[in-house]
Amino acid sequence: MSAQDGETFTFHLPNVTSNGSDIQSIEWKQTDKNKLLAIIKPQNGNPVIIHQDNRFQFMQNGSISIREVKQEDTGNYTCKIIYKNGTIKEHNISLTLSSGKFYSLTSLIQNVQMTRLLKGIVVS
């Protein structure tokens, strides 16, 4: 996937078809810069989204859009989705600058299965 400098770039998480009803929380981080981008908590179709950068938009299913992509957006990102049944899915993404003004995004997906006795605890 690629986008030109200054355009909006959207990354749809693969294999995530949930409308949010089975998701407990979603956390986006820019890992190489140790920057928390957002925490998303779906609630009755109206997600509570805690974030600070208005160029980033987050969907209820965990997908991300970055408006006006620029050099500072390059790096590694992690999206951690915690489902109500205790399953955790992590999506590791690398956003890189290629051939001048083009950015490309690659994804490595890790699934982590967890069984938990207590509900409502976010594992980080």
UniProtKB/TrEMBL annotation:
Primary location group: membrane
Chain segments annotated as transmembrane: none
Keyword Signal attributed: yes
Cross-referenced InterPro entries: CD2/SLAM_rcpt, Ig-like_dom, Ig-like_dom_sf, Ig-like_fold, Ig_V-set
Localization: Membrane
Pfam families cross-referenced by the UniProt entry: V-set (PF07686)
GO CC annotation terms, alphabetical: membrane
Record SUPFAM superfamilies: Immunoglobulin
Domain Ig-like residue range list: 1-96
Keywords, sorted A to Z: Glycoprotein, Membrane, Pregnancy, Signal
UniProt name for this protein: Pregnancy-specific glycoprotein 22-like
Source taxonomy: Eukaryota, Metazoa, Chordata, Craniata, Vertebrata
